[in-house]
Design brief:
The complex is a heterodimer of chains A (138) and B (128).
Chain A (H helix, E strand, L loop, with lengths): L8 H19 L3 H7 E8 L4 E4 H9 L5 E14 L2 E12 L7 E13 L2 E15 L6
Parallel strand pairs in A: 1-6
Antiparallel strand pairs in A: 1-2, 3-4, 4-5, 5-6
Helix pairs in contact in A: 1-2
Chain B lengths: L10 E5 L3 H13 L3 E5 L2 H10 L5 E4 L8 H10 L8 E5 L11 E4 L2 E2 H12 L6
Parallel strand pairs in B: 1-2, 1-3, 3-4, 4-5
Classes of the chains: A alpha+beta (138), B alpha/beta (128).
């Protein structure tokens, strides 16, 4: 389907780029970018079954408590509803740390909202598909 | 909030078999200034409690291998040295949270509620 057939193509392209920008910001622990991309009232339900908001998550990024070796995101669907966009897809991540260093394969749903002319991440839910423990280093 | 003088140095034992959930909770509580000891099941938790000074608070999952949260709680309340330690149960079993505990929080856990509850119990006067 080309852009003339798909009236949401521009928004889908913009959100797809933002999804990658946000993932790169998380990987790089770039709190200032995340501060901009995350809505102040953002809600995240993580694979650890913790529901957290923007401030606590930014604090974790700044304190090095959310430090990732790998973070890849592949959206599967991007649905546009006027000023809301829902993205679903899968992610691969691996924390840096002494423990819990397994590779996580997850599905996710992100909700983006347009505020003041800019898109921000408003809600996010992540579910575990599979955990893979890395091969021990010889 | 945690990190202030009243809660600083409070010791918390986190008993949770899910590694992801346990590590995330430990990281969160450490970030807030608590000293945290993780345990993967009730048996590990009791072994820790047998060896060291009692913590100020226990955060306890219910459904765990080796020794579950109900068994752990039963052992804890029978031991006069450990019975007074407050326990926050964190569980997915909303209809089966029939456990004697100071608080029960259903998973997924709202971080704000968890931190407020933890702070409440860490501010309590120590039981003689």
């Amino acid at each position: 389907m080309n852009e003339t057939q798909n009236p949401n193509a521009a928004e889908q392209k913009e959100i797809a780029a933002l999804e990658q920008r946000e993932a790169q910001a998380i990987l790089g622990a770039d709190a200032s970018t995340l501060q901009t991309l995350w809505a102040d009232d953002m809600v995240v339900n993580s694979t650890a079954n913790l529901i957290a908001g923007k401030q606590i998550l930014l604090e974790m990024v700044r304190n090095g408590r959310l430090k990732l070796r790998i973070y890849e995101r592949r959206p599967v669907r991007i649905e546009v509803f006027t000023d809301l966009v829902v993205t679903t897809g899968h992610e691969v991540s691996q924390l840096i740390g002494d423990t819990a260093v397994f590779k996580l394969f997850t599905s996710y749903m992100n909700v983006w909202t347009k505020r003041g002319g800019s898109w921000q991440l408003l809600a996010r839910h992540v579910g575990v598909i599979q955990r893979e423990r890395p091969e021990p280093i010889q | 909030m945690p990190g202030d003088s009243e809660c600083e140095n409070a010791n918390i034992l986190v008993v949770e078999d899910d590694e992801d959930a346990r590590e995330a909770m430990v990281a969160l509580l450490q970030m807030k200034g608590y000293r945290v000891v993780p345990a993967g099941n009730g048996r590990e938790a009791l072994d820790y409690l047998d060896q060291g000074p009692p913590p100020d608070l226990i955060i306890l999952d219910l459904w765990m291998p080796v020794m579950d949260g109900w068994q752990f709680r039963s052992e804890q309340t029978r031991n006069p040295r450990l019975a007074h330690i407050p326990v926050i149960v964190v569980t997915a079993l909303s209809d089966r949270a029939d456990v004697d505990a100071n608080e029960v929080i259903i998973k997924p856990v709202d971080v704000d509620r968890l931190l407020t509850t933890v702070e409440h119990y860490c501010r309590r006067e120590p039981t003689p």
